[in-house]
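Quick one: structure tokens for this chain, please?
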Amino acid sequence: MWKSKDSYSMWGGSDLLDKRKSLGMSQLVMSSSLGVSHRMYCYYESGQQQIPRSIELSVRWMERSSSDVIEPPSGSLSDFDRERIDRLCDALVGIEGFDADSDRVLSQSLKEIEYLLSKFD
């Protein structure tokens, strides 16, 4: 299957290696986190295969989320805030099926929102 040039990252294997090391992950953990086989991840990191843009974006998200420390908010949510968040969660569930990468991001986003909401209970 042919992909457009925009489907691939400008990163090389060494860039991916540096990012993985900065996250403190093994190749196996990183590949599992990205939803690719260990073998395919090794191809990316060794430069034998081009790195898809979706992998780059996922790694960037992992970097950002690993450095973000979310402090639990003080107080409680209003009924209005709770309703808005519930609607957002319902919308996330309703748009699955676009592609596997998007579904994975949406699923993870929903889990993160539910985790944050649990801080208020």
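DSSP finds six helices and no strands in the chain.
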